[in-house]
Backbone:
């Protein structure tokens, strides 16, 4: 019986075996392997000597596997397939020991969602770095994905078909009124809201467009009410706290809301759907796949979540 520990079988012999079996002759196999015909013949002959059997019947028509040769060819295919899987597994594991995942996100997501996700990811893959690219506007997040500047993005849904997405949470828009407001319930009226100057994002901000369209659908125009245009969420909340005006913004962007500021639901509800996005038909690294897996289990306590 052949002792495995004493076997001198080489991978080059197995590759030669499969090539001869596929092409039916030694010369074609040699051409495909970029070897000389004598090298392939020697590889097969030495393999036959090692195993003590005849693997091919040689003739003018070429080389055809013997019955036992067919069995050996099957084993050789499995061996080389397992070798490929072993190397792929090693490469995958190695890729999780170093590298970078680039995340583009709106600032509220960076504040309330990413820290928990990064902490979990670092426990699983401590060698992978996370680069956070913060944007005021979700359209800039999508641009970063499209231009290859980011691997993963937090954006508003729905979006275009060029992205693969899934919903992670739903965030209600709330009205923030200054401490002097005298509200009787958690839902304000338009009259109570518009009794104050409005603080809104700049007109080229997608959040402002969403808000304006929502109000227009309720036959409300706010252009004459706008007193300040400010993009930084924390600045807006501080201005409301100081009594400079009122605002409408996503709750996640407003958190933490000072206790003196009145936060109430809109007369006509509005929400934004935040989702995770990657560019469709793009080859993602194992590190990115692992980070996406972590994101699927992360939720922020500050908002109402999708079921």
Residues:
């Amino acid at each position: 019986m052949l002792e495995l520990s004493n076997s001198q079988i080489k991978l080059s012999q197995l590759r030669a075996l499969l090539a001869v079996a596929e092409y039916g002759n030694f010369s074609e196999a040699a051409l495909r392997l970029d070897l000389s015909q004598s090298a392939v013949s020697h590889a097969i002959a030495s393999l036959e000597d090692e195993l003590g059997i005849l693997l091919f019947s040689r003739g003018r028509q070429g080389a055809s596997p013997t019955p036992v040769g067919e069995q050996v060819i099957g084993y050789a295919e499995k061996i080389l397939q397992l070798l490929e899987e072993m190397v792929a597994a090693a490469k995958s594991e190695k890729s999780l020991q170093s590298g970078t995942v680039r995340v583009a996100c709106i600032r509220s997501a960076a504040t309330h969602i990413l820290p928990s996700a990064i902490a979990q990811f670092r426990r699983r893959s401590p060698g992978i770095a996370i680069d956070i690219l913060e944007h005021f506007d979700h359209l800039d997040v999508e641009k970063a994905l499209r231009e290859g500047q980011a691997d993963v993005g937090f954006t508003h849904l729905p979006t275009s078909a060029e992205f693969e997405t899934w919903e992670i949470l739903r965030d209600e828009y709330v009205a923030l009124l200054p401490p002097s407001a005298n509200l009787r319930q958690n839902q304000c009226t338009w009259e109570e809201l518009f009794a104050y100057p409005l603080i809104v994002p700049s007109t080229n901000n997608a959040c402002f467009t969403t808000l304006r369209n929502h109000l227009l659908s309720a036959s409300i125009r706010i252009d004459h009410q706008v007193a300040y245009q400010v993009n930084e969420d924390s600045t807006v909340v501080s201005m409301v706290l100081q009594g400079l005006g009122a605002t409408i913004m996503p709750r996640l962007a407003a958190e933490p809301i000072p206790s003196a500021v009145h936060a109430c639901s809109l007369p006509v509800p509005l929400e934004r759907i935040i989702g995770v996005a990657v560019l469709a038909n793009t080859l993602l690294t194992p590190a990115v796949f692992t980070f996406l897996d972590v994101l699927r289990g992360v939720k922020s306590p500050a908002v109402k979540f999708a079921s």
Notes: The longest helix spans residues 67-95.
